[in-house]
Amino acid sequence: QVQLVESGGGLVQAGGSLTLSCVASGRSFSTYHMGWFRQAPGKEREFVAAIAWSGDNTYYADSVKGRFTIYRDNAKNTVYLQMNSLKPEDTAVYYCARKATGLFMFTYYETKTYDYWGQGTQVTVSS
C-alpha cells in the first residue's frame, strides 16, 4: 500500500511563497512519475504540475507556469512544489498523486491516470 502525505500549506499574502512537500511510502517511488493537483471550493480538481520519475521532464498548467516549480528528491521519496508570486486564485487544497497509467508526455494532466492520492494540504492566499 502506498501512502502520500502532503505538508507545507498555510495562509500567505498575495505575492508570497510557499513550498509544499509530499512524502511517499514504499520502495518504488523513484520509478513513478508524480503530479500535483488542486481543488478550490465548488470547482473540479485541476492539474498543476507533473514531473517524470527521473526529474528530467516537467509540465505545468498555464496558470502557474513561471511561478511554480516542481522537483523531486528520490533519495527522500519526496516531491516538492515551490510556489512563488502567489495569487488569491491559487487558493485551494493541493494534492500530490502518483501516476499509474498512460504515456506521460500525453496524459500528465489527466486525473484518471493517477492511482494514489494524498489527503491534501490547504493553501490560502489573502489579497
Give an overview of the whole structure.
There is one protein chain. This protein has one helix at residues 104-107; strands at 4-7, 10-13, 18-24, 34-39, 46-51, 58-60, 68-73, 78-83, 92-99, 114-117, 121-126. The longest helix is centred in the last third of the chain and has 4 residues, at 104-107. The mean pLDDT is 96. Strands 2, 4, 5, 6, 9, 10 and 11 form a 7-stranded mixed beta sheet that branches. Strands 1-3-8-7 form a 4-stranded antiparallel beta sheet, with no helix packed on it. The relative contact order is 0.30. The chain is 3% helix and 47% strand. With 127 residues, the protein is mainly β. Strand 4 and strand 5 form a beta hairpin. It starts with a strand and ends with a strand. The chain has 1 helix and 11 strands; from the N terminus they run βββββββββαββ.
List keywords for this structure.
127 residues; mainly beta; 7-stranded mixed beta sheet; 4-stranded antiparallel beta sheet; 3% helix; 47% strand; globular
Apparent shape: globular
Taking pLDDT < 50 over at least 5 consecutive residues as the criterion, the unreliable ranges are none
Largest sheet: 7 strands, mixed
Number of strands: 11
Mean pLDDT: 96
Element-by-element helix/strand order: EEEEEEEEEHEE
| Helical coverage, percent range | under 10%
N-C termini distance: 40 Å
Number of helices: 1
Beta-strand portion reads: over 45%
Radius of gyration: 13 Å
State the secondary-structure class.
Answer: mainly beta
Topology overview:
Blueprint: E1 4-7, E2 10-13, E3 18-24, E4 34-39, E5 46-51, E6 58-60, E7 68-73, E8 78-83, E9 92-99, H1 104-107, E10 114-117, E11 121-126
Parallel strand pairs: 2-11
Antiparallel strand pairs: 1-3, 3-8, 4-5, 4-9, 5-6, 7-8, 9-10, 9-11
